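Can anyone check this?
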Amino acid sequence: MLVNEEKNINEVEDNNQEAVVDNTPTSSEVDEDTNRNDKITDQLSETVSEDFKVKEEKDEVEEEEPPLPIDSDFLIEFENYRKKFLKFYKIQRYLQWGVAAIALVIVILAWIGAGFWGFGLPVIISMIVSSLGIFIVYSIIMRVILNKKMKKYFVTYYDLTYKYITEGYTYDDFQVDAHKKIENVDFLESDVYQNIVNVGSRALASFKYDDLPIFMCDAAGSVKYEKRLIPVFVGKYFRAPASYDLESKTIIYLKGDARAIPPTKVDDLNVSYEDERMIIYSSDKNYQKFFNTKCKKTFLELKPNKDLIDAFVCLKNGKLYAGLGYDDSLMVLPLQNPIEVRPLKQFKHDIDVMLRLIRLLNK
């Protein structure tokens, strides 16, 4: 159950609903949508296969890097808490097996007693019902306790790691709620990926940077591919104001490796700039008035690697939507293994870059 909770950002939420547009498309629109969907499907197919290929190659040739030492009191505090929680988690698993064994022994005794000791039917039924009752009551009580401790585990993780992330920087009124989510529309408004059918999120944080209101959360946007959900983005998602006032949107994308899926909602945009590291989609040449050389230089301080997969910024309607795509090393909470410092250091660097970029895009 804990493993599922650790990765719940990628799960389908029961309360998430698909957006439905009640318009009857023309034949040309159907053709355009079909071509677009085919293109996305091809891209997903290629990415999924390449992802598995790259993973296999990494497993074969990549040597394990030695972990960085934990050099923060906040991370030391969390690591101590993780060890205590893991100990409790293992103990309750052993207890569960023990209670199940006791219940099974009672059932076996009832069956043996019927043949050797002449137990009557009422006695046998009572023993079986008692064994089931013991197991059910224990399971219910332990589930309540475990869920409560698990929620506290999430709160403790985000509280202490975000204290580490923000240490040494000036973020005013920084607040994070580990269990608070965003609405689907908050992610769909970013207008970067086509055909998003599911949005998962957690750890909504709000703060001010140079008096600019910013929210950030863990988020995952998924599309349907061959009867399963494939995430096209998993990482840290930002929303902030921007001075951008052009009619059409502009998307700036930092290229990644085979794990990355580039923006797919760009059919109405032109490729205004592209090099080996970055691509800019825009239909208005005046985008450079807002995303200038200084912004480009700052954005390129983000460097995809083992932890950071890719990044995007979308500017439209006076708002900025941004995403830092990360691997499981940052997005999955540690439990069995010690907390990794390397991805947290990466995120600490990247959020500083992103916030400086946001400041530039509001001048």
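Reply from J.R.: I decoded it. Confidence is low (pLDDT under 50) at residues 1-34, 47-62.
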